[in-house]
Specification:
By secondary structure, this protein is mostly helical. The protein contains seven helices and no strands.
């Protein structure tokens, strides 16, 4: 029957509302992609730093210095651009993930809401430290070194702020999924945080060691330059391991959320005031004067 409703007509028909989308699951998915991009970025950094180390080793052994390898450094620009683009994508997905997770802060109870509030603080500190460090997005070593601008891939200032940045990035990654993971996975996040913190600190020490060697000829390859770039490749590998550990944890949480093992707390249904028809309205008409009482009919006459 067209237009049939299972209740009286005075009650309006309310539309059906869609299910509540889980913002936390969406945020975990975004951060998972950010970790994947960060892992790829560090893999590119490893190849790029190793390439520069090989070139510097050959230039130092031949005694020709930087002048003979300038074209090779120009070719290394491809590694720099690739790492920068992927790092930018990682940062975008990371911010989207943290924002979506914070929008769903009420989906898993007060403990999760408290962790999301802490995550916002960690995100702000990590972002500020990362900008100051200028350390290639989520990585620890600056990949923008030129043959004449620096003797190594590390910066003392960038390394110090990079260590603080790595600490708060790890704390942020751990806070976003803390209420969903087991004790073993929490230990994995602590290991990843330690690796992200230690890697820039080691780079800072190498930077101070490199700055103490001043070559006589500015075009001469410093003795520690190849070693510094090999160390940069190794430290990028350390951060790659950290991102792989976090990616493993986030993949597990994301898979459980999609399988329905971690359902959000249902949002209470919206309250509607039921519609009740009011009393019937009867217009008031002006009074009409009463007419004379009806006359009585004459009494019936008996038949003759």
């Amino acid at each position: 029957m067209s237009g049939y409703v299972p209740f009286p007509v005075p009650y309006p028909v309310y539309p059906s509302y869609p299910s509540w989308p889980a913002k936390t699951a969406q945020g975990v998915g975004y951060v998972r992609w950010a970790l994947l991009f960060a892992t790829v970025m560090q893999a590119i950094n490893i190849v790029g730093f190793a390439w520069v180390a090989v070139v510097l080793t050959g230039a130092a052994s031949s005694g020709l210095g930087f002048a003979s390898s300038f074209e090779v450094f120009g070719a290394n620009l491809a590694f720099i651009c690739a790492a920068g683009i992927i790092a930018f994508a990682a940062v975008i997905f990371f911010i989207l993930g943290a924002s979506s997770a914070h929008e769903g802060r009420e989906e898993f109870g007060p403990d999760h809401a408290r962790e999301m509030d802490r995550a916002v603080i960690f995100l702000i500190i990590a972002f500020v430290m990362g900008v100051i460090a200028s350390a290639g997005g989520l990585g620890s070593a600056s990949f923008g070194v030129t043959p004449f601008g620096s003797q190594g891939p590390f910066s003392p200032v960038g390394g110090v702020f990079g260590s603080v940045r790595g600490l708060f990035v790890g704390l942020l990654l751990g806070s976003l999924v803390r209420v969903f993971i087991s004790k073993e996975d929490r230990d994995i996040t602590r290991i990843g945080t330690a690796l992200l913190t230690i890697s820039p600190a080691i780079g800072t020490g190498i930077a101070f060691l490199t700055l103490t060697t001043n070559p006589v000829d500015p075009l001469t390859v410093p003795a520690l330059a190849p070693l510094a770039f090999w160390a940069a490749a190794a430290l990028s590998g350390v951060e790659l391991i950290a991102f792989v550990l976090f990616f493993r944890v986030y993949s597990s949480v994301h898979r459980r959320m999609r399988a329905g093992e971690l359902p959000p707390i249902p949002r209470p249904p919206p309250l509607y005031t039921p519609y009740y028809p009011g009393l019937a309205y009867y217009p008031v008409y002006p009074g009409v004067p009463e007419g004379p009482p009806p006359s009585r009919p004459p009494p019936a006459q008996p038949p003759p």
